[in-house]
Amino acid sequence: MTKTEFEPAIPSRPVYGVLHPAVGSAHLFVADGEGAGAVCDALTSAPALKAAAHVIYIPGANGSDHTGALQALGVAQFHRAPSFAAALPRLTKVLADAHMGMQIYAAGTEGLMAQVAAAAQAAGLPYEAVQMEHRGSLARRVQCVHCKGVTENVTLDPFQCSHCGLTLFVRDHFSRRLAAFQGVCIDAEDPGQIPASVERFK
Amino acid sequence: MSVGAPKIPVVVAEVIEVNALIKRFRFVRRDGLAMPVFSGGAHVVVEMDDHGTRRMNPYSLMSAPGDTSGYEISVRRDEAGRGGSLYMHNHVRAGMEMVLSQPVNLFPLDARAKKHLLIAGGIGITPFVAQMAQLEAMGGRFELHYSVRSPALGAYVDHLRGRYGARVHVYHDAFDEKIDLANLLKTQPLGTHVYVCGPKGMIAWVHATARAMGWPDRAVHSEEFLAPPVGLAFDVSLAASGKTITVQPNQSLLEAIEAAGVDAPYLCRGGACGQCETDVLRCEGHIEHNDHWLSDDQKASHTKIMPCVSRFRGAGLVLDR
Q1: Domain identity same for A82 and A148
Q2: Cβ-based contacts of B187 with chain A (< 8 Å)
């Protein structure tokens, strides 16, 4: 699967590019699901990077798992994690121990990329320091603006908040800080007037 | 005139000869109010009445950012310059009344950084003196690498070593000591931002070395004020005010506009901030773009000019001013 083409959206929506192997002393790749393809493309085009590459991979929530292809790359370090939450302590440790000059690449779903960028920013790097390439699922990570709970892998719009139970309309409004789209109560003014859910994000 | 708040009326409280090239000036307010708090890296524009010629030069503030009792600047004597630094050195005495702009910061610390690596060359030390005071008060992590010509010309070295100890590293040209930049940049923890202030060549060296080592551009900060270069006299038509003026060889276009009584925006007067950007309505000739603000495309198009540092050669120039 190749890079996703997005419709023009509001300015808060991040814009993604293509991973370009950059000059650096170390190369940290974090990917989920089909994002593995972007990592394979980047490292196949620049095999010299493999000796200094660390790949953290999380199989997709939609079941896509390209662990084998990534292991076959022969990078210096490969780590497979069951979820981003499970990978975060390792990511935080890698960032804390790294030196300037390390390049960071994120590929896969928007939620994954934004959470990698947020971790990099928390480590003191500028937002622009993380290269991002969208691959695969468009399922969204959504914050309920009412209860502040985050629901992962939202494909339906509207959907029911997994924390407070409100029915939420999924906006394009994206928070880099929270690494999430914003969901707002769809029937706040007319309680009970809830349109049928549509699968908007596959 | 400059945007923002009114100017600050001051009296020169103290003039100190720091070394053979540098003098330090302390200004306190004449109206008894407190100086505005500033952030490390900020500068003020000092207005001078040099025997009829109005000079307005930007200088970095080097006093502690939270000290509202006065402002301090250091001025390096530039024999080849247009005369601002010579005026400060030769004519400004304690007790003189002068006027300062409000502080403006075009070289701030990035508070998101985990560590601040400060690289200074010569008089480029001044913004860092204020920034280090700010970082020390905030508990920020920093390291200074300061290149000077000789021990005699190492302004504030003893003061800084006394205050910040091993965080201050000094390199003397006279002893062939050079900052090992590649090694320095290679060993910085992730989340470090680097700041450089000094001669043009040093700034370019730090930017190029950091880029070649994979540092993100946004983690590399620099400040360089340009003195308006001297050149040939030229005529300019100001369409909005209906005036045609002559810019003298040792005068900047902005200064000539002001001398004609036309109100023009400015902040840094050194080609860095973008405030004085002016539309060019007609250009028959060549604009000598000397600023850091306009993009290469804008410069090539000859539709914009930064009057604080740029000049013109040719048959006619009309500005929307």
Answers
A1: no
A2: 99
Same domain, A118 and A41: yes
Q: How far is CA A141 from the centre of its chain?
A: 9
A24 interfaces chain B, CB cutoff of 8 Å: yes
**Contact between B183 and B210 (Cβ < 8 Å):** no
pLDDT of residue B115: 98
- The residue segments making up the domain with residue A36 are 26-134
A-B CB pairs within 8 A amount to 64
For residue A43 the two structure tokens come to 């490292």
> A76: which residues sit within 8 A by CB, 6+ positions away?
A50, A51, A52, A53, A54
Reported as a single tens digit per residue, the pLDDT across B166-186 is 999 999 999 999 999 999 999
- Give the pLDDT of residue B83: 86
ipTM over 0.90: no
Q: Are A128 and A145 contained in the same domain? A: no
Tell me how close the Cα of A85 comes to any Cα of chain B, in angstroms: 22
Query: Which domain-ending residue is among A119, A134, A149?
Result: A134
CATH label of the domain that carries residue A91: 3.40.50.80
- How many angstroms separate the Cα of B176 from the Cα of each of A139, A144, B179, B189? 60, 62, 10, 28
Pairwise CB contact (< 8 Å): B192 & A100: yes
| pLDDT at residue number A1 | 47
| Average pLDDT of chain A, as a whole number | 94
Spatial neighbors of A174 by CB under 8 A, at least 6 apart, are A12, A13, A14, A110, A114, A180, A181, A182
